[in-house]
């Protein structure tokens, strides 16, 4: 990108060298997303689902294989705008695994008696005659798949971009489909549309911050390349308002995406309103992508001024951990509770950013994987607990679920234990790795605060487990629907990964450690 | 640490640095070939237990057979390992199977692996062999029990946990097995939980064992602090590197653990009550295997005790005390199983004593452990057979003259009886006399105690034997027709009886060479020849046995006489073990608990509740910021942006 | 020469501001004031303005579709124009890139067309 910009100053056009092999996973996912649009346009309604499912799953799987084949590569390509390195590939892999699991939840058509979890036609007004007409016709939505693939492609680009403009484009490719996906829940349409609207407005607001921050950093460094910014920082060691303001605004844009306090308020509303399968996708994958980009920007471009931004990150991390954990204490809606839990997790992950060392990067990558699988599993369970109006997300209706559906309740309990960071689950290892990195990176007191916040968090996860397993079930409580193999597989995968990562974490820790060097 | 250099290594364009793999130092050989299937030892019985417990009543029909198959399978695996090991030179015999690294983060390493060497293979064979026999025996013994499947599931669970205990390659994993056998023991003692006495006994065993477990966990923590490792190779490689007082404390903590699990003074009280469990359980867990785990622990930790002589002396003293203690209790009990339990306590006392003698004794501790495993299991199964034939009667005063009606049981039991007394050429003679000799070699008083113990052993065992099998029948009305047990029960007894006869001279001599590379071995230097010693102890045995025979051959009153010597009264009360516990531990404990509860209610609870309430209140207040209006969210983001900018600028200034 | 490179920008901004103020003020002062209903309505290309009191108060989605299609093609032109200007310099690489870009846009256009986005009823 910067060489294109450079073309303005010299008449010669330097042909950008693009190693297509290195970015093939991203190209594949985005290309297939376009094909998916064509499928929507030309394949008859009756066949669309099958075609879309085959297309989506094969794309994700092939992309994952490509990522695995690229393992060990370290190069900057596409005119210095994409860095295919360990962290990028590890997080692309994580994203694809999580996206595959989330896709299984999205593909589920066995739990809602009306078909799938998405509105028959998203543009029909909630409660209007049109909507009833479309619902009566039994129309089901397949457009989710194009949006899903575009979003995944954007996320993969977001963790790979090493250029502020590419990062911004990736941010938008990732976010715009999500805004739409958030608004197309079949049940509780108004809530869903409200969620989409809020997400869109606030997301646009935060994108503005990010873009403005990029502009200021460009003003400072004369380049949008992350490595170039780092060089500029080394060259001008003195005070510079542009640098400070740019850092702040870029950070704000990223804080919004990871739902750090006080940029988190969209999260509970959006998590609650979105179709639960989409919430699962959003909660896990956006967090991976946003932290991937944050780690890259903060380590590669702004590592030189970390003494400036670390205290600010301390403040935000502490706020995030505590506010997330404390507000979660009094939540009565399972989805909102998980939303606040995700806020608290963002706080723990910020410790890894503060650490600015190799362990921090590796720890964060492991943490994201551990958090992601448990999140998708957890939301997967939520899709199953239903009453006549759809999902029964109020905690009171979950009371005593363990007595009626021990497997489902047991699985949910395991996910909560992992969130809480209890040993022998993936969450424990993740927390351990991140805290260790924090201590090694000189953020000992931050880790102490994190441990305190974890204690609060354990309390509210424990409370849910107690309600789940030891309360007397309500007589008119919700039923647990037996899903098709899609959801069942997603939950089983989440469960087994959570346990496996907790018991045999070493290979994954090793992998993350090997992948923990950014290229610039 | 220099942050900028770490950062440079995170953001670098160089090649990936190869991760340094730290080769373990002087570890046992990595398991290959047959040894790489070592995990099957644990996996098989564990799988059996899991299937029986998970599939529940569906497995009622074939479950017990599956459990037997799993146990026998484990034995076959163990036997293959043993035969493979036989073919290797002595130094290559220890093998280690690395299972997985749970966590390796910085200095904290928690590898999980199994280790099989000359010591653990003996245990593996003993556990799986006796375990399998007892599984088979239980098929007859528990035939009519409605919860038979659960019983077999627990037995499998026990075998798995016990094998984990003896094949673990670190104290941490050993601790897992240690707790596992504790759990299985708890479940099996309380198997007939509808009997209050069984439920109480189970609870008692559990609680007393916890005291010992605290010792083990303290020992492990001390090891981690001292050696930075909890693996056998890490701790035992060079314990002398640590200072002696630390080692003494580790040794004493290990001894406490051993006392709990092996019912040694002062934690002996649970074993007598544990006889409430079904008799096969008493035979397997509370005679042959689990209660010897303490001996294993001490012999395994031999290098620590070698470097901490004070701790070793403590082991010896505890063993000597328990030896006499158990024997005296055994003399006074009329309940056949309790008499045998007292004897078990006393015999394990011998083993602990031997382990406390150092390199001259380790081998004999294990030798006696093996022979004891055979003859005591044999006698317990015999007792079970008698109970079976006598309508669950346990009181020896109501037995008598059983030799005619229960011929097989009589013969097998007699083998055990002769073996435990140490009559040549029965098994106990070879193992016990070696211990007595070694004890004399170290300390005359201890030797004398051990010798005296042999005499008392002969007395109470002959008393038991005489009251049960000889004299006139004193059967009460409810069991007029004692009968021999079925083949499925007597065949295991016969096999064990055979081993009670031959195991001694089969193993004598061989076991020293076999174990020496692991535990070390030194010949005992005695002032007198060992023949003299043997004659002395044999004379005492004959004396004890004769007194007992003459006293109990004649009429035995149906009700125990009340006007007896104070010693007998004390022995009947388990030498006031429970009273001691009550006065010394329970009363102050209760007082402490009460005051803690008071403090807890007034202090801690108030604090905790206060924190919880204030967090809840805070949470309620913070929720109100979440108004649901996008505009206020945007405002909060703006405020956040201001905070971010302000913090950054503040740092700059 | 110029004292500050940013000066023209400031000058331009000032001009824009002044133009806005002056034109509104002039229109108020000079323009004739003859009100009728059509004049008070919002201007929407000559058709009846929405939202209407009875129609539910919502714009129909079709407006958005048209607007978005317009923007899509608008942006396409924004990209095509500089490419066309320096076509010679950019060479084959850029031709392929632009073709890819146009094809992508056409895919979306095909979607809108097939799904009835261009039918006004």
Task: Characterise the protein shown here.
The complex is a heterotrimer of chains A (520), B (653) and C (121). By secondary structure, chain A is mainly alpha-helical. Chain A has one domain (17-514). Chain A has helices spanning 2-6, 24-42, 45-70, 86-107, 129-136, 144-160, 164-182, 189-221, 226-235, 241-258, 266-273, 276-301, 306-329, 334-355, 358-382, 401-404, 406-420, 426-440, 444-470, 485-503, 506-514; strands spanning 75-77, 82-84, 385-387, 390-391, 479-480. In chain A, a hairpin with a 4-residue loop joins strand 1 (75-77) and strand 2. In chain A, helix 4 packs antiparallel against helix 12 (276-301) and helix 14 runs parallel beside helix 18 (426-440). The two termini of chain A are 15 Å apart. With 653 residues, chain B is mostly helical. Chain B folds into two domains: 29-572, no CATH class; 581-652. In chain B, strand 2 and strand 3 form a beta hairpin. Chain C has 121 residues and is mainly alpha-helical. Chain C has a domain at 50-114. Chain C contains four helices and no strands. Chain C has helices at 7-30, 37-40, 61-85, 87-114. In chain C, helix 3 (61-85) runs antiparallel to helix 4. The mean pLDDT of chain C is 81. At the A-B interface, helix 8, helix 10, helix 11, helix 13 and helix 18 of A face helix 1, strand 2, helix 24 and helix 25 of B.
